[in-house]
Amino acid sequence: MLTIATGNKAVAAAVKAAKPAVVAAYPITPQTEVVEQIAEYVTAGEMDARYIPVESEHSAMTACIGASITGVRSFTATSSHGLLYMHEMLHWAAGARLPIVMANINRSLGPGWNVWAEHTDAFSQRDTGWLQFFVGDVQEAYDTTLMAFRIAENNDILLPVMVNLDGFVLSHIMQSLETVEPGDYIPPMRLPHRIDPENPAGYGAMTGPNDHFRFRWEIERAMRNSPAVIRDAEEEFFRQFGRKYGPTEEYRCEDAEVLIVALGTLGKEAEVAVDILRDAGIKAGSMRIRWFRPFPDLDIGGRDLVVLDRGYSFGYGGVLSSEIRSKYPGASIYSVVAGLGGQEVTYDDIAGFVRDRRMGEEFWFGVDA
Amino acid sequence: MYEIRIHSRGGQGGVTAARLIAMAAFLDKKHATAAPFYGAERRGAPVVSFVRIDDHTIKIYSQIRSPDLVIVLDASIMDAVDVLQGMKPGGRVLINSPHPVDLPGVEVMTIDLTGIALSVDLVVAGSPILNTPVLGAIAKMGLITHESALTAIRDMFTDERNVKAAEAAYEELTL
Description:
The structure holds two protein chains of two kinds.
Chain A: E1 2-6, H1 7-18, E2 22-25, H2 32-43, E3 50-53, H3 57-68, E4 74-78, H4 80-85, H5 87-95, E5 101-106, H6 120-123, E6 131-134, H7 138-153, E7 161-166, E8 174-178, H8 212-241, E9 248-251, E10 258-263, H9 265-279, E11 284-289, E12 291-293, E13 304-309, E14 312-313, E15 317-318, H10 319-327, E16 332-337, H11 347-355, E17 362-364
Parallel strand pairs in A: 2-3, 2-4, 4-5, 5-7, 6-7, 10-11, 10-13, 13-16, 16-17
Antiparallel strand pairs in A: 1-8, 6-12, 9-11, 14-15
Chain B: E1 2-9, H1 14-27, E2 31-36, E3 46-54, E4 69-72, E5 92-96, E6 107-111, H2 113-119, E7 123-124, E8 127-128, H3 133-140, H4 146-156, H5 161-172
Parallel strand pairs in B: 1-4, 4-5, 5-6
Antiparallel strand pairs in B: 1-3, 2-3, 7-8
Helix pairs in contact in B: 1-4, 2-5, 3-4, 3-5, 4-5
């Protein structure tokens, strides 16, 4: 069905279509609309799920963990401080190999208080063992949320998945949305290590120095399996529903001499900048990264990279440019720190970053001249 | 691409107006996006929201800086905000006002949306509703079809007074 929806409502609609048994969540700006909409679906009987209102995000994640370990599908959504409040339990969900799906509506962290888009919240959970996707429009938010369940629950993965949407910019914009009936695209969840609540039995959670590393390695092994599983989920999605996705979305990259690399909505706005630059004779392309964990292979090919960073590691550098530099040590990178706390960044600004690029340097938009 | 910037006060429904216009454009088989600019809103504070309409996919998320059309739902805002900022040459302004308004260098249309809302008793919590009647005016300007305007309103609201008010605005606006 074709309709028009906000990013938040698109996520809620995808969750409804994926039919989780349990949704546990705590509202936080700008995520609130996601859980409000799901609560409405449940109240109206359109969703046969148990909606658990909890007293904190930490409890939202533990409720999802408790549900998931019994072998049922669970979902939550959060943002910013809510995500960080879950931090301990995010490690727990990955360590217990539970395929929980979460939408994180990217928002900066206070103080000073700021409810607008920034990627620091997601970046700060980088090493928890969750898969992370960043999406660029309302349709992709819907589609990726559906894919997330299939990927997380794949028995070669069994890791939780976070779908990231830029706060307000994407969570609150209205765009067209085509909803689908996923059917067997998301097979029934079969958790091999589920606990049977009818016959409850726990097993020792203690792993000594001779075993613990094996469990850590198993998480990494699943991560290394994940690119093939994600590609399969994307290809099957294209076959069944006709929309194509990959680790990156590339726009006019074939003959490009300079690539704008970004996550989320900045990567969409970058495509408009590419058209402007091309009209001015500059061979630019846009490479929007969709997978953050696992971090994908990039077809950089010796080209200049103008990396837009919406999150920063203090004392080191822009997070996305650091990731790329670490994977491709020889890459020629101009790191542009832009869009923090919802700072307005237009396609003209992005085109300007490319025109004025100083390779190997860092530029703080609005601070540096 | 046609770009609309809506000026209103928090609680007057400017964001909903943007969503209704985008919905109607979408029903007309156009591409459309509606985006509120969220500040630290509270009731009564000046707010802006944006609508983009195009024949192609819209990839722009940043705010509208040179609108083709500015809609002012509360004329008193013009004392505090420069609603003409960045106006495209040849751009138009639609102001909710019972009296003609003269602004230099732009084509100004006025319509008494408040009066229309009051005349059909479209009042919620003591405030006249402006976001549904304004759709009638936008349809009269030809930016969305009359039919899609009414469908969009009915999709979001069950109270038929919203449709009545939009119809009245459609009749009343003179181009």
